[in-house]
Amino acid sequence: MKVLSFGSLNIDYVYAVDHIILPGETEDTGGREIHCGGKGLNQSIALSRAGVKVMHAGLVGEEGDALIQQCAQNGVDTRFIRKVPGPSGHTVIQVDKKGQNSILLFGGANRQMTPDYIDEVLSAFGEGDLILFQNEINLLDEIIERAYAKKMCIVLNPSPYDDALSVCDLNKISYFIMNELEGEAISKEKTPEGMLSFMKEHYPQARTVLTLGCDGSMYQDADGILQQGIYEVKALDTTAAGDTFTGYFIASILKGRSPKEALRIAAKASSIAVTRHGAIDSIPVLSEVSSSML
Ligand code: RIB
Fold first, then answer.
1. pLDDT of residue 5
2. Measured between alpha carbons, how far is 33 from 197 in angstroms, rounded to an integer?
3. What are the residue boundaries of the structural domains of the chain, listed by start?
4. Is the CB of 270 under 6 A from ligand 1?
5. Which fold has domain 3-9+37-88+110-292?
6. Which residue's CA is the closest to the ligand 1 atom numbered 8?
7. Mean pLDDT, residues 278-284
8. CB distance 103 to ligand 1 below 6 Å
């Protein structure tokens, strides 16, 4: 089985701030760091660090060599990444004293997907292969249609949630991995139980993972609902914690772990990620996760 991560690659401009800036306010920052990131790239690297062979498909701009190098240095197969005219995707990320973040996203090259490029990439995949994506690239609806026609296992992390997802046929998704905000946007429900009940009723074909911040995570399939608490740590920076969770959860399932074990491993991996600064830099390798679970 081949694993394809089809998603964004961003340059993250990360600013340390006292508090997330308010409307109309000007705030001095405590410094800036520049990192490679993007939910797609982060999740590819999380999968790779969790021990899965993964190919990344995505677009970078003229200055995007560092993003491709990051993939390669982390064992991610880069054969499908293409360079296009114009700038790469980038973000402006504020991280406050409690480690909470706020992200301003510029799509750049990530929004230049074309049907031809999608066909070129997917021509290398077939029945039973897994495709993972988020919502930082354009033409998600086309990717879903084509991947479904090929009978691939489709994993959607609907992050960040916006209107582009409303034109996607979510009946074709095999796994949803989402947080409470995304769960509420999809279901219009306010409680985790309500969200899962909506998912079961409307998308009975799918398994759903719901992450709940300090309240841990939940998993639902035809057999019922599982719950996982958090590992308590002092959070420095929550950037990419969700991406780490997604990568480790999927990697664990691919390696034959039960959903219960996969939730536990993903919770541990993301608890390590929040104790570190940055996106890619914060994602642990498998040996760190395993040794801290002994
Ligand atoms: O999930 C974290 C990521 O979201 C950052 O790396 C940033 O690029 C944004 O896409």
1. 98
2. 42
3. 3-9+37-88+110-292
4. no
5. UDP-N-acetylmuramoyl-L-alanine:D-glutamate ligase (3.40.1190)
6. 38
7. 94
8. yes
Query: pTM score, two decimals?
Result: 0.96
4-13 as b/e, with b when 16 or more CB fall inside 10 Å? bbbbbbbbbb
- Test site for ligand 1: of 45, 60, 74, 91, most ligand atoms within 8 A of the Cβ: 91
- Residues 143-159 have a mean pLDDT of 98
What single letter denotes the amino acid at residue 234?
K
User: Considering only CA atoms, which of 245, 246, 234, 247 is closest in space to residue 277?
Assistant: 234
| Element spanning 225, H or E | strand 224-228
**Buried b or exposed e, range 134-148, using 16+ CB within 10 angstroms:** bbbbbbbebbbebbb
Cβ of 10 below 6 Å from ligand 1: yes
Give percent of the chain above pLDDT 70.
100
